[in-house]
From TrEMBL, chain A:
Domain of life where this protein originates: Eukaryota
Database matches in Pfam families: EF-hand_7
The protein's name: Calcium and integrin-binding family member 2
PANTHER family: CALCIUM AND INTEGRIN BINDING FAMILY MEMBER 2, CALCIUM AND INTEGRIN-BINDING FAMILY MEMBER 2
Automatic annotation (TrEMBL), chain B:
Biological-process GO terms, alphabetical: cellular response to mechanical stimulus; detection of mechanical stimulus involved in sensory perception of sound; inner ear receptor cell development; lateral line development; vestibular reflex
PANTHER family cross-referenced by the UniProt entry: TRANSMEMBRANE CHANNEL-LIKE PROTEIN 2, TRANSMEMBRANE CHANNEL-RELATED
Species: Oreochromis niloticus
TM region(s), chain numbering: 273-294, 348-366, 440-461, 514-534, 657-677, 706-727, 763-787
Keywords: Membrane, Transmembrane, Transmembrane helix
Name of the featured protein: Transmembrane channel-like protein
């Protein structure tokens, strides 16, 4: 929006494409989500946002336990309303080509349920319950959260800062998403 | 002079550049070492000046930092260029030359021209766009000495430019490539991207990629394609792994321990497939295609006495009748030295395949074990972040299918449970004396039952030998041995498991004990069975000896009569139908039949067990539960658990049977392949349909090496009897590929003598000399000893390192804690300062994305990937958070500005 984006000219398309991979269909997808809200024509930078409920129903996200969090952490207002740019943003980060550092940043944001810049115990409990569909007993959840914090917490404040998180996640063998 | 010069000109762009700046008086004889640094300096000095011309037009805002960077980079580059060899500079120059003639690098050209005006020859050469070396030569020819020197100067000067420009273009390109790595908002990215791209467009063309651009684009495209291809290929390869999805599904519901059985089964299937290929390709099929047909010789014909019943179902099921005289068994093979037009040496091939089966299996098992040891590193991973990784990285974001998602949930839950079990086990403290007593007791009980079952088997085998002499056998008496063995296999494992409850090991260790015990049980079974078999073989051998003598005597008699009556020394064999010929008992076929029968009954028993023990039980529990007094699902019968130990051992021993029997019954491998194939599907289905996960889902040790170890042991054990029979027992005189020889391996001797050149024979006889073998064995023993001690040493140092790492980590933790506290003190102190006191409480709260923010400010100047890396380095390497604090804090105050901070709104929940 600060940008002089007037239309999806070739140049503009190029630009988008460099910054992510599967741009070509993204606008289509975005439009598809709410045909009545999103204009087909993006020439004059319409200011429209899609609500969370719509985006969460995309097949890519539908089965994801963290879908709400994902969308929320990409939206500027924190409520899960995505403009097209944010929408594109989200997909570029989630694409397999995005580097680990970037993913780590957003992963941290996603897991940070209460948006306090730390992963504290409640965050972990929520994460765990979403991951296991609440199949674990409360004691087990407790144990796991304790252990997680104990393992990854380097500065001893009983919550994970981003430094802790990145330190931990950068060594994870299968953190590729 | 000329060659010298040329060489110098070609060597190192830096040198040329250096000369360009300095007075042309420089001689070529100067050291490069001296020259290069000066040249570099010169290049740097010069650049800003030159740069201005091009820069102010296209890049407006980023200029100053970039120039600085460019300078720095250039310095670097200078060093690099010096090292880089002639090719580089040549290419650069060549490109430039081309470009000069080419399209849009006007600015560039102008610059070059202005600068290069003194050098007269150069412009020409460039415009012609010919190969640089040629140019130089020409020039050199035209004007010798100084003038040519100067012309080179020009080129090299612009080369400095080139390098710098290229540097920048590279940088921009890197920015473009990395732009999606930045945690920026899209608009911002677009802006930067646009700038960068414009720059690149402008200069990339100028840099001679204009003409080479197509090639360049092609190259880029190809690399992209190649990467994509690699990825696709990788996917394809995973898709090619058979049953991967099935196994993953099982794993997600039943844990890695159950999955490890299926992985083992799959591995086994692969191995058997290869064995099957060998046996059928080299033995069975040649015999079928090229050997004598059925009914042509006695060994390929059912004897007259048996012909009436040869097709009865019961007879066939006992592998008598037509089965016995078929290609499935040893006796069918003929002892012709070569068969068919290809002169295929069947007996030799038979022996080689028999031995090769063992060789291949041994090699494969050992190799797999070694590989697993490499990968797995023992039980349970002792990583520092078990739970954290599970928590944050286990979800697969590619899942878009509800069913897969369900599986994933299940698998994550399972894996958490596995880790929890491990963790609880670590935390458990216990009454050691009681536990020890219980463990001893359990072992005692188990030893007793092992001994008992061993004796029972021995007894049954003895009885069956008695039965063998009688004809009036009931069905039970005939199959007593199999029944007893199967019963033992059914009863003992649960018994052991019950007893093992006393011991209260971690389930993974308990599984190993259980495996070991049942292994011992089966081993006893196997060996009593083998000894009984050898008894049988011995009696058969005696019997055969008698028949052999008798038939030889009869033959002699016949020939004597024949020649006496006909007065003809040419003996033709007696005109007898092959079915009527008197023949020996052919002990090899008998052994083969025994093994095949055992295998088949084993298959039946295990399938029936699954059908009745699991499926029927599950059906009853499921449907009778509606009308039953107590809760069947939760109460007594409930659903079955998957019996890992039993299944694994079943598989291992089955394989042992195959190895032992394959020599005497080539068809056995085929049967086994079918069995493994069907049991893969059958058991996968049975597990998913009828079983419930273990109460304590535990993680299997990462490598299957315990299974492999058992397999290796069984392989070794089954190797012994086969080798013994091959080396010592005389083969039957009238059946099988080795008939007529004293020992089976004589066929090798025969080949050496007849088919190989004479010197090979002597060579072999030398090689077989004890004087050579004993030193060789000694050497091997020494090598083993040495390697063993080396590996031990490595293991020790490994442990040591692990310990150190752990210590370092703890220390780091402590230090961080301390640092934090001191930091706190510092903060308090800071608070006391008048001007700071207001700020601190504020920033941490609202400044929501601490990472995204600093990075832009930091990286904005340009260096694309570096900013990220730098950040990471700080985060990872610096041991104390203070180093970090300044990074995240400065943007803090700026953060609250309206447009910048994201997610500033009320927290979503």
């Amino acid at each position: 929006m600060g940008n002089k984006q007037t239309i999806f000219t070739d140049e503009q398309l190029d630009a988008y494409q460099v910054s992510l991979f599967s741009f070509s269909r993204l606008h289509g997808r975005y439009h598809e989500l709410a045909p009545h809200l999103v204009p087909m024509d993006y020439t004059n930078e319409p200011d429209c946002k899609l609500p969370l409920a719509l985006i969460v129903n995309m097949p890519e996200l539908k089965e994801n336990p963290f879908r709400n969090r994902i969308v929320e952490s990409f939206s500027e207002d924190g409520m899960g309303n995505l403009s097209f740019n944010e929408f594109v943003d989200m997909f570029s980060v989630l694409s397999e080509m995005a580097p680990r550092e970037l993913k780590a940043i957003y992963a941290f944001k996603i897991y940070d349920f209460n948006v306090d810049n730390y992963l504290c115990k409640e965050d972990l409990e929520k994460t765990l319950n979403k991951l296991t569909k609440e199949e674990l007993t409360p004691e087990e959840v407790e144990l796991v959260c304790e252990k997680t914090i104990e393992e990854a917490d380097l500065d001893g404040d009983h919550k994970l800062s981003f430094a802790d998180f990145e330190n931990m996640i950068s060594r994870a063998p299968d953190f590729l998403r | 002079r000329r060659p010298n010069r040329r060489q110098a000109g070609g060597r190192g762009g830096a040198k040329g550049r250096g000369r360009g700046k300095k007075p042309a008086s420089d001689d070529e004889d100067e050291d490069e070492e001296d020259e290069a640094p000066r040249g570099r300096r010169g290049a740097n000095r010069k650049k800003p000046a030159k740069k201005r011309g091009g820069d102010d037009e296209d890049e407006s805002e980023d200029e100053p930092p970039k120039r600085k960077r460019g300078g720095a980079a250039n310095k670097k580059k200078g060093g690099k260029a010096q090292d880089s060899d002639d090719d580089d500079s040549d290419v650069g120059k060549g490109k430039k030359g081309k470009k000069g003639g080419g399209r849009k690098g006007k600015k560039e050209e102008e610059e070059e021209e202005t600068k290069g005006k003194k050098g007269d020859g150069k412009g020409k050469g460039k415009d012609k766009g010919k190969d640089k070396d040629d140019d130089k030569d020409k020039k050199k020819k035209k004007k010798k000495g100084d003038s040519s020197n100067s012309s080179e100067e020009e080129e090299s000067m612009s080369e400095g430019e080139m390098a710098r420009l290229m540097e920048e273009v590279e940088e921009k390109k890197k920015l473009i490539a990395n732009i999606r790595n930045k945690p920026w908002r899209m608009q911002r990215r677009l802006k930067h991207l646009k700038e960068a791209q414009e720059f690149v467009d402008k200069f990339e063309g100028a840099l001679g990629k204009g003409k080479g651009r197509k090639w360049y684009a092609y190259k880029v495209m190809m690399t992209k394609k190649w990467i994509k291809f690699q990825r696709d290929f990788e996917n394809f390869r995973t898709a090619c792994i058979p049953w991967e999805r099935k196994i993953k599904e099982v794993e997600s519901h039943f844990g890695s321990s159950v999955a490890s059985y299926f992985i083992f089964l799959r591995w086994m299937y692969g191995m058997n497939l290869v064995l099957f290929g060998f046996t059928f390709g080299l033995v069975v099929i040649p015999e079928v295609l090229m050997g004598l047909p059925y009914g042509s010789v006695p060994r390929k014909t059912v004897p007259r006495a048996e012909q009436d019943t040869a097709q009865d179902y019961s007879v066939l099921m006992d592998f008598n009748g037509y089965c016995k005289y078929s290609v499935l068994f040893y006796g069918y093979y003929n002892n012709q030295r070569t068969i068919g037009v290809l002169k295929f040496r069947l007996p030799l091939s038979y022996l080689m395949v028999g031995i090769g089966t063992f060789g291949y299996s041994l090699m494969l098992v050992i190799r797999t074990m070694a590989k697993n040891a490499d990968v797995g590193g023992g039980d349970g991973e002792d990583s520092d972040f078990t739970f954290a990784w599970k928590m944050f990285t286990s979800w697969d974001y590619l899942i878009g299918n509800a069913e897969t998602a369900d599986n994933k949930y299940a698998s994550i839950t399972t894996s958490f449970k596995e880790s929890i079990v491990d963790e609880q086990e670590n935390q458990k403290d216990e009454n050691i004396h009681l536990r020890r007593f219980l463990r001893v007791l359990a072992n005692f009980l188990i030893t007793c039952s092992l001994g008992g079952s061993g004796y029972l088997i021995y007894f049954v085998v003895k009885r069956s030998q008695e039965f063998a002499t009688r004809d009036d056998l009931s069905w039970y008496e005939k199959n007593e041995m199999e029944i007893v063995m199967s019963l033992l296999g059914l009863v003992c494992p649960p018994l052991f498991e019950t007893i093992a409850e006393l011991e209260d090991y971690h389930p993974r260790i308990a599984l190993k004990w259980q495996l070991g015990r049942i292994f011992a049980l089966f081993l006893g079974n196997l060996y009593t069975f083998l000894f009984a078999l050898f008894d049988e073989v011995n009696t058969k051998l005696e019997e055969e000896q008698a028949i052999k003598n008798a038939s030889i005597w009869a033959m002699k008699e016949y020939y004597a009569n024949y020649s006496r009556l006909m007065n003809d020394s040419e003996a033709t064999p007696p005109p007898m139908d092959p079915a009527d010929v008197i023949r020996g008992p052919c002990w090899e076929t008998a052994v083969g039949i025994e093994f095949v029968k055992l295998t088949v009954s084993d298959i039946q028993v295990s399938y029936l067990t699954i059908l009745i023990g699991d499926f029927a039980r599950a059906v009853i529990v499921r449907f009778l539960n509606y009308c039953w007094c107590w809760d069947l699902e939760a109460g007594f019968p409930s659903y079955g658990e998957f019996d890992i130990s039993g299944n694994v051992l079943g598989l291992v021993f089955n394989q042992g049977m195959i190895w032992m029997g394959a020599f005497y019954a080539p068809g056995l491998v085929g049967i086994n392949v079918l069995r493994l194939l069907s049991s893969m599907y059958y058991q996968c289905w049975a597990v998913m349909a009828t079983n419930v996960p273990h109460e304590r889902v535990f993680k299997a040790s990462k490598s299957n090496n315990f299974y492999m170890g058992l397999l290796l042991l069984v392989l070794f054990l089954s190797l012994l009897p086969v080798v013994y029979t091959i080396m010592t027992l005389p083969p039957s005189f009238d059946c099988g590929p080795f008939s007529g020889k004293d020992k089976m391996f004589d066929v090798v001797m025969e080949t050496i003598d007849l088919d190989l050149p004479a010197f090979m024979g002597t060579l072999f006889s030398y090689a077989a000399n004890p004087g050579l073998i004993i030193p060789a064995v000694l050497l091997m023993v020494l090598a083993i000893y040495y390697l063993n001690s080396v590996s031990e040493a490595y293991q020790n140092s490994n442990m040591e390192l692990k310990k150190k790492m752990k210590m370092a980590r703890d220390e780091e933790k402590n230090r961080r804690n301390n640092a934090d506290t001191t930091n706190q003190v510092m903060k308090d102190l800071e608070d006391l300062l008048p001007n700071r006191s207001l700020i601190p409480p504020d920033p941490p709260e609202p400044e929501k994305p601490p990472e995204p923010e600093p990075k832009p400010t930091k990286t904005k100047p340009g260096s694309a990937g570096k900013g990220v890396n730098l950040q990471k380095d700080v985060a990872l390497a610096s041991p104390n958070p203070n180093a970090r604090a300044p990074v995240s804090r400065p943007p803090g105050p700026r953060g609250p500005g309206p447009g910048r901070g994201r997610g500033r709104g009320p927290p979503p929940r």
